[in-house]
Specification:
CATH superfamily of the largest domain: 3-hydroxy-3-methylglutaryl-coenzyme A Reductase, Chain A, domain 2
Bound molecules: (R)-mevalonate
CATH topology of the largest domain: 3-hydroxy-3-methylglutaryl-coenzyme A Reductase, Chain A, domain 2
Strand content: 15-25%
Radius of gyration: 25 Å
Strand order of the largest sheet: 3-8-10-9
CATH class of the largest domain: Alpha Beta
CATH architecture of the largest domain: Alpha-Beta Complex
Length: 422
């Protein structure tokens, strides 16, 4: 029988049984199986409960960005990321920011939106108002789903009903506005949306299809600002101006904005991952918020104040939680929360926003000055040396020589390795 990926009941098998199938499929050696069998901090039983069809766990580096002050308090920022220069960037930029007192934050609170889509409504505008008339009933049904959340001061607080024009005619879209307290809230709001959907369908005589949260969590915004004293740019004043020009470029041009925001997300996603939160939700929220005017643009803003100091700000949705998700389950995420010392999801979200702004400060500082390659090169050269087969002290020797020669390439690493091994 040939190789097939059709494996009925794969999810019901044990980790060992799955491993055996994958081994045969990919013709894995003993050594490769030993790599798959290695275990880190997340034990395999826990991993097997977190997602489906588990065969192992996967590690990434966990680094700490130092120097961060947010709202007058010192924080160490745990970051999980595969890319070099990300942690160094936040550390360096956070040091620069200390001269102006660090970062300052605020937020709108942990408020999520769930959407209920109704189609085939003959009088969508009349239906819209009928739903508003049912607001108390809707909120009541929603809140019955999660008495604990309500007890903690959260729960469904309001509704918003929109009529949208689509390729298939008008649709009535009901938004349920839910305070999810310290949870990211996806489960809570999706359960509420599913519970009220049949009533909505009946009251407006329409066909309800989707009942799901929106990742454009624009009622759950975090904001952060920073002032970098002009003295931080002594001898390189034009770099400060270059950074403001860099912002204007990102503000005006989606091609640049994509990269500018990617740099911001380097910091945000790395911190979100470390805390065990859903980084795709944060990324979807960030990029959709960056497009809210109809043109994709920068998530940050950089300008010069009357002193000539550099002022940066950021505003974006931040749906992160401290309960639910992997945050309480993954042993390292629990430790990360302890290192951060945060007590509420709102505080966590604000910190992550500040890290995004800090990462952007680092990137623009490098890009408007010497460029980013110089900083990247040392770690990059080491990675290339390892990829070419260097081990032990040969890694540093090969990397050092490639940097001196300004040739950081696989072929050169392989040549040098041969030469040094002689
Ligand atoms: C690289 O991961 C991130 C940068 O490209 C961000 C930017 O260009 O602003 C350096």
């Amino acid at each position: 029988m040939g190789r097939t990926s059709r494996i009925p009941g794969f999810h019901k098998l044990s980790v060992e049984e799955r491993l055996k199938i994958v081994r045969e499929f990919a013709e894995l050696s003993e050594d490769e199986m030993a790599v798959l069998g290695k275990r880190g901090h997340l034990d395999i039983q826990t991993a097997d409960r977190m997602i489906e069809n588990v065969i192992g766990t996967f590690e990434l580096p966990l680094g700490i960005a130092a120097n961060m002050i947010i709202n007058g308090k010192d924080y160490l920022i745990p970051m999980v990321v595969e890319e070099s220069s990300v942690v160094a960037g936040v550390t360096n930029a956070a040091r620069m920011a200390r001269s102006g007192g660090g970062f300052f934050t605020s937020s709108t609170g942990p408020v999520m939106i769930a959407q209920i889509q109704a189609v085939n409504v003959t009088d969508p505008y009349g239906a819209r108002l009928r739903l508003y008339e049912k607001k108390d009933e809707i909120l009541g049904i929603a809140n019955e789903q999660d008495p604990i959340l309500v007890e903690m001061g959260g729960g469904a607080k309001d509704i918003e009903v929109r009529v949208i024009e689509t390729a298939l005619g008008p649709m009535v879209i009901t938004h349920l506005i839910v305070d999810t307290r310290d949870a990211m809230g996806a489960n809570a709001v999706n359960t509420m949306a599913e519970a009220i959907a049949p009533y909505v369908g009946e009251w407006i005589n329409g066909r309800v299809y989707l009942r799901i949260l929106s990742n454009l969590a624009d009622r759950r915004l975090v904001r952060a600002s920073v002032r970098v004293k002009k003295e931080e740019f002594k001898g390189a004043e034009e770099v400060l101006d270059g950074m403001v020009y860099a912002w204007a470029f990102a503000d005006a041009d989606p091609y640049r904005a994509a990269t500018h925001n990617k740099g911001i997300m380097n910091g945000i996603s790395a911190t979100v991952i470390a805390t065990g939160n859903d980084f795709r939700a944060i990324e979807a929220g960030a990029h959709s918020y960056a497009s809210r005017t109809g043109r994709y643009s920068s998530l940050t803003h950089w300008e010069k104040d009357q002193n000539g100091d550099l002022v940066g700000t950021i505003e974006l949705p931040m749906a992160v939680g401290l309960i639910g998700g992997a945050t309480k389950i993954h042993p390292l995420s629990r430790l990360v929360i302890k290192i951060l010392g945060v007590k509420t999801a709102t505080e966590l979200g604000e910190i992550i926003g500040a890290v995004g702004l800090c990462q952007n400060l680092a990137a623009l500082r490098a890009l408007a000055g010497e460029g980013i390659q110089k900083g990247h090169m040392s770690l990059h050269a080491k990675n290339i040396a390892v990829a070419a087969g260097a081990t032990g002290d040969l890694i540093d020797r090969v990397a050092k020589r490639m940097i001196e020669e300004g040739k950081i390439r696989m072929d050169r690493a392989a040549e040098l390795l041969k030469e040094f091994k002689k």
